[in-house]
Design goal:
mainly alpha
Length: about 120
Amino acid sequence: MDALFDRVNGEQFFVDLVDHFYLGVAGDPLLRPLYPDDLTESKRHLALFLMQYWGGPATYNDQRGHPRLRMRHVPFVIGPAERDAWLRHMRSAVEQMVGRGLSPADAEELRAYFDMAAHSLVNAP
């Protein structure tokens, strides 16, 4: 079976997914303070990470080293409320992409990964 990166026709899918996600984050009073004023680099990093994770080029590793998601998120207080808000925006972004290069089965695979990842980053009650 082809990597999800190939099934969704590559880079542009992940750029669009991340753009949809950050539209939600930008207006979220709980999450917005956790991000820098300029979201450009945050968007780029997330898109590169997701591309690499889902079978695309290793540009993220080449530019930033091993992802070390937990380590990179330690400076931020991430409790259940932050996790749930993050997941709400990411799930919405995934839904926006269904039918635009994303099959329902691939959407479910993405949702399962994002759910696992979000839960693993909780570091506060």
